[in-house]
Specification:
single chain, 995 residues, alpha+beta, Phage tail protein beta-alpha-beta fold, Maltoporin, Chain A, 2 domains, 22-stranded antiparallel barrel, five-stranded mixed β-sheet, 22 helices, globular
Length: 995
């Protein structure tokens, strides 16, 4: 064999002629390709191909290949093995290969080189070896000649080494080329740069390099158009944060799992936070270790995927490795010594015979709470008197020793267990596929502290002291359970068409229990109602915990999708049947009942607050059990008008039970003007149907709002009723039923490749939304006679409603630039990403012919309501990150800039831009074990201190003038919105073992 390889020039020339003959159709299709191939590249190709025809994959060869980027390792492998290897440079370069040193056969050596990298080895019928990303989701199809050619062509015009050692003839390889569909196009095999709309493909490695343990925070760190805002003392929002894209609402982004619609969370954000009045998806229910990649489509896609896809689509693709396993353990805490987080991931792939795979992931995460509360500066006991300088002179001697750290403001205490299973099996001419996701997360956050002198929430008993003399901090315990499963079958036909039938079920359930609390009206009733109990007996027997209520949202989806590919044209059509379900389960009577009031009239001389303090319950009158059916049809087509111009279009019809139908369109194009410059653009209409939560959630709860009569801006408790539009109260004042939001999206962008290793994308967009669903201000007495009477009958001090009440306009630009180069014998990948977004409320309107019709819209939707939409998220986000790999070390350094944002909360305050630095260093000890250490927000950057909407402010002195406490309030940082939180620096270390 070696004699032929080294000396038989005739055999070599003959081999090259055979290659030219077999590939003649390639050169006929791509005439310019021949011009670009130098003689040097061609002969390298011929030499490698002819040699590879002679080398057996089973021959033992000595390899000496260092740990490096996978594309470079494969080139070195091919050189040392004299073997032709087929791989896609664009797909392979994002992976890291292992060190390979010793004697191996080509096949076994290649498998060891790529063990647990995310790449797999395939053996073609010709005997040659190929590389491909491990099995993908149910959108995979095989055996398409056109895709095989499209994959080979860009490889042929690469560098000499890439060309010579990474090729396979089409005839030998076309049966094994895998087509990958990504969100944004139903044509498999498109690269992200070929799509008419911007799509970010975020690998599992990129997510892990952020050092975060939650998917929401991972996305925020590497996708500037994505925001994951933090708030505090905002009830369920503390445990389930709003996730937004391009500054729009959480419910205006559609989330998919393996291309299938994901259900929303059952929570609707009622309190004053980003996303107020909306219901999004729980991004943290899927453990990061179960994710293969995340695709973020930054464009309106309602015509392609249906309701909610106004801002874009996030598609989470699950792992599908069929062999390798991993155990990863990390521990970290904040520089303040709290927020200790332990995260354990265990994942393993299994082969189901020779035709299938099953991949499982178990995640256990335990996070302790953080607390950045300021000191309690107001008097906790009665008897304080105000001095001439505004200070308070204590009265009750207990004031001098009362604890001043009474609030807990920060991340909730959280414990999560999550399990994910992803499976596929080749059956007949297609694939049977399925996935299961399950998570259970127990959270505990805190409410407002009820001090001794809080007569409403901490009832005074017959001995003149409060029910809980030292005061109490109510805790909100949320038990969040999320489950989904999917089963489907995709069959491939011989005429380049496919049929995919699938069923998906998902549900999100939240059960709330309030602990460390009391029902103050119950204590008051025990005092005055003839119970015969003494004050001490009341204190010792009063219940301190109650089940408040439960929420459940479920989604069932049946999908049928048909695709057909022609030479230059692809066509898809499909139908979807959905059933939305929403339930609200009442809580215990103690959690919601007003024991000292009947028919709106107080029974006793003192009237105390009803329900469990901190988080009141929901009674049977607010129980919900509703369903809604949706039927949808779509057509989707894509064509290559020329080899440089791709045009796509889609139309979708949706019929919703309850409010009617909607038809939407999309037209998009990508024009490759040169090999290094392409223009892309899209225009579309979209819609978002009212969520089940917006339609049916109703409750009376205690919300803390700024007291307009208090110059200090202190927060006061108000009983706020959230009333569904078909409630008796809403009907009494003529509130209309909700209808869908309608949007119009325009985008234009460019893909620029000034050099082989540099890629730049710039995309401009506008999103106009009409009839946007917003929740009203807290409307109280004196605005409308009909409203006054209805509120009194409902026992609420104010009411808020979901209304189609605003038109908004969003404009922005996304910029992403990448550069891959070599530095000091290592590989450096630099990424710059930026998003600039501005949203304006261009019109406000109240429903006419209703009890609100004569009220100024600026009263129905307050300045704060408008500010939440326009200003509470940064109008610009930028990041610069570098991933450096050399030897056994990988270093990830990232700078994240969060732009200015403004909050209205009694007053207005603009919070300045800040830059956070993240650093992660990984050391690969051997083939199986690695260690990492890092810091998020390395330099302990904090947002500006809060100057508005504070609470418990003041200075207290004793009789000698000694200052007991002086505090600007408990909210040192804004509790309403904090784009990167206010916990400070987080330091962590971890280890990963692969097997």
């Amino acid at each position: 064999m070696s004699f032929i390889q080294k000396n038989n020039r005739g055999f070599l020339i003959l081999s090259c002629l055979l290659i030219l003959h077999r590939w003649r159709h390639l050169f006929e299709i791509e005439a310019l390709l021949v011009q670009k191939l130098s003689v040097y590249r061609f002969w390298l190709l011929c030499i490698a191909s002819s040699i590879s025809m002679q080398v057996s994959a089973n021959e033992v060869i000595y390899f000496d290949i260092k740990k490096q980027r996978a594309d470079k390792a494969l080139i070195a492998f091919g050189q040392q093995a004299n073997q032709t290897i087929l791989f896609s440079f664009g797909e392979v370069k994002q992976f890291q290969a292992n060190e390979l040193k010793g004697h191996y056969s080509a096949e076994s050596g290649l498998k060891k080189l790529l063990a647990v990298t995310g790449l797999s080895v395939v053996v073609h019928e010709s005997g040659h070896l190929g590389i491909q990303p491990q099995k993908h989701d149910g959108t995979i199809t095989m055996n398409n000649k056109k895709t095989a050619l499209a994959t080979l062509i860009p490889l042929l015009v690469g560098t000499a080494s890439q060309t010579a050692l990474a090729q396979e003839t089409p005839a030998a390889s076309e049966e094994s080329i895998e087509k990958i569909s990504i969100v944004g196009s139903r044509v498999a095999g498109r690269s992200a740069d070929d799509l008419p709309v911007p799509v970010d493909i975020l690998s599992a490695e990129a997510l892990a390099n952020t050092g975060q343990t939650e998917v929401g925070r991972m996305l925020q760190a590497i996708a500037p158009s994505f925001n994951f805002s933090t708030s505090a003392i905002s009830d369920g929002t503390d445990a389930l944060r709003p996730a937004t894209l391009r500054g729009l609402g959480p419910d205006q982004t559609l989330v998919l799992i393996n291309g299938k619609r994901r259900h929303q969370a059952s929570l609707i954000h009622i309190n004053t936070s980003v996303g107020r009045g909306t219901a999004g998806t729980d991004m943290n229910a899927i453990p990061a270790a179960a994710i293969k990649r995340i695709e973020v489509l930054r464009d309106g896609a309602a015509a392609q995927y249906g309701s909610d896809a106004i801002a874009g689509v996030i598609n989470i693709v699950l792992n599908d490795d069929d062999e390798d396993g991993k155990v990863a353990l990390s521990y970290g805490e904040y520089s303040e010594g709290d927020g200790e987080t332990t995260n354990l991931d265990i994942s393993k792939g299994f082969a189901l015979g020779e035709e299938g795979y099953l991949n499982t992931t178990l995640n256990i995460r335990d996070r302790s709470p953080t607390n950045r509360a300021g000191l309690h500066g107001s008097c906790q006991f009665s008897g304080c008197t105000e001095l001439a300088n505004g200070d308070m002179l204590l009265g009750d001697p207990r004031e001098a020793t009362a604890p001043r750290t009474t609030f807990r403001i920060g991340d909730a205490d959280s414990k999560q267990v999550a399990l994910t299973i992803n499976a596929g099996y080749e059956l007949g001419d297609g694939e049977l596929y399925s996935f299961i996701t399950y998570s259970k997360r127990d959270n505990q956050s805190a409410a407002f502290f009820r001090h001794n002198n809080n007569s409403g929430g901490n009832a005074q008993l017959q001995d003149g002291d409060a029910t809980i003399p030292e005061g109490f901090l109510p805790k909100i315990n949320s038990d969040i359970r999320d489950v989904s499963y999917n089963v489907g079958y995709q069959v491939e036909f011989s005429n380049d068409s496919s049929l995919d039938l699938s069923y998906t079920y998902g549900s999100n359930t939240i059960d709330y229990t309030t602990s460390d609390t009391i029902n103050s009206s119950f204590a008051n009733d025990l005092r005055y109602g003839g119970s015969g109990l003494t004050a001490d007996e009341i204190r010792s027997t009063i219940p301190r915990e109650a089940y408040a209520y439960g929420l459940e949202l479920a989604l069932q989806t049946l999908n049928l999708d048909y695709t057909k590919e022609f030479d230059n044209f692809s066509f898809a059509m499909g139908a979807e049947i959905r059933t939305d379900e929403y339930k609200v389960t009442p809580g215990e009577e103690y959690s919601y009942r007003d024991y000292d009031t009947v028919d709106g009239e107080s029974l006793y001389v003192d009237d105390r607050s009803a329900g469990s303090q901190g988080f009141g319950g929901i009674g049977p009158v607010s129980e919900v059990d509703e369903t809604r059916d949706v039927i949808s049809f779509y057509l989707d087509a894509e064509t290559e008008l020329t080899e440089d111009l791709i045009v796509s279009g889609a139309v979708r019809y949706d019929d919703y039970e309850g409010f009617g139908d909607s038809t939407n369109f999309k037209l998009a194009a990508n024009w490759s003007i040169t090999d290094d410059f392409a223009l892309r653009g899209a225009m579309s209409t979209g819609f978002r149907a009212p969520s089940m939560q917006q339609l049916y959630f109703n409750n009376i709860s205690t919300q803390f709002v700024t007291n307009p009569d208090d110059p200090t801006g202190d927060q006061i408790a108000v009983q706020i009723g959230t009333f569904r539009n078909d409630s008796t109260l809403a009907q009494a004042i003529g509130i209309p039923e909700l209808k869908e939001e309608e949007s119009t999206n325009f985008s234009i962008g460019a893909v620029i490749k000034p050099a082989d290793d540099i890629n730049v994308t710039i995309d401009f967009y506008t999103i106009d939304i009409d009839d946007r669903i917003v929740i009203s201000n807290k409307l109280g007495d004196g605005l409308s006679t009909a409203l006054d009477a209805a509120l009194k009958a409902a026992g609420a001090g104010a009411g808020q409603f979901f209304l189609n009440g605003a038109d908004t306009e969003t404009k922005g630009v996304d910029i992403i630039a990448t550069w891959n180069t070599e530095v000091l014998n290592g590989d450096l990948d630099l990424t710059f990403a930026a998003n600039f977004t501005e949203t304006d409320v261009v019109d406000l309107f109240a429903p006419q012919d209703s009890g609100l019709g004569d009220i100024d819209p600026s009263i129905i939707f307050s300045e704060q309501d408008i500010s939440i939409i326009e200003e509470w998220q940064p109008q610009d986000r930028m990041s610069l990150s570098g991933l450096y790999q050399t030897g056994d070390f990988t270093v990830n350094l990232a700078f994240n800039r969060y732009g200015e944002y403004t909050i209205t909360d009694g007053g207005r305050q603009t919070y300045g831009a800040e830059v956070l630095t993240d650093l992660r260093v990984k050391y690969q000890l051997n083939d199986n074990l690695s260690f990492n250490i890092g810091a998020n927000n390395l330099f302990d950057v904090m947002p500006d201190k809060n100057e508005i909407g504070n609470s418990r402010t003041g200075t207290i002195v004793d009789a000698d003038g000694n200052v007991i406490v002086s505090s600007p309030g408990v909210f040192t940082y804004s509790r309403r919105s904090a784009p990167f939180g206010f916990n400070g620096a987080y330091y962590y270390a971890g280890a990963e073992f692969t097997f």
